[in-house]
Every structure is written in C-alpha cells, then in structure tokens.
Amino acid sequence: MRDALIVEIQATGAQFKLEPWDGDIFAVRLVPSGRFAAVAKNLGDEPNGLAQFQSDAGGKPAVLRITLDDGQAYDFRREAK
C-alpha cells in the first residue's frame, strides 16, 4: 500500500485519498466508504483529479488546491480553532 493523506469533507463525510504522484503533486481518489462506496466504484481506478499544497508568503502550506478531472478547482484552508 502506498503512503497517502486522507482529507474528509465534514459537511458530507466524503473522504479523498491523496497519494504522492509527481513531486509536490498528489493524485486524488474518492475513498469507497459509506454512502460514497458505489460512487467511488463507478469512478474506477484512475485518479479523480490532482492536488497541490500552495504556500503563503512565509513558505508554509496554506491552501490545498484540488483540481478535478473536469477542470473544476477547489481551494481548502484549515480553520483556526
């Protein structure tokens, strides 16, 4: 099994696996669990998109940008607690 990060969308429970792909780029796949199991199975084995961490002015990772295979991009930021 390859190393991977798991990102969960709290509002839906959808989980995405981010696997190292090329340098600082990650392949994104929907995790086949819960109500998303059938959807993930229908999507097949190919990555659903690519992800990359984008750094702030200080060089720290600040945003995770996920670009899906249809070209739609989503930016995720960690909420301060």
Provide an overview of this structure.
- This protein has 81 residues and is mainly beta.
- It has one domain (5-76).
- The chain has 1 helix and 6 strands; from the N terminus they run βββαβββ.
- A 6-stranded antiparallel β-sheet has the order 1-2-3-4-5-6, with helices on one face.
- A hairpin with a 2-residue loop joins strand 2 and strand 3 (25-30).
- The chain starts with a strand and ends in a 5-residue tail after the last strand.
- The mean pLDDT is 91.
Outline the fold blueprint:
Layout: E1 5-8, E2 15-22, E3 25-30, H1 37-43, E4 49-55, E5 61-68, E6 73-76
Summarize the structure.
The chain has one domain (5-76). 9% of the residues lie in helices and 46% in strands. It has one helix spanning 37-43; strands spanning 5-8, 15-22, 25-30, 49-55, 61-68, 73-76.
Which characteristics define this entry?
mainly beta; 81 residues; 6 strands
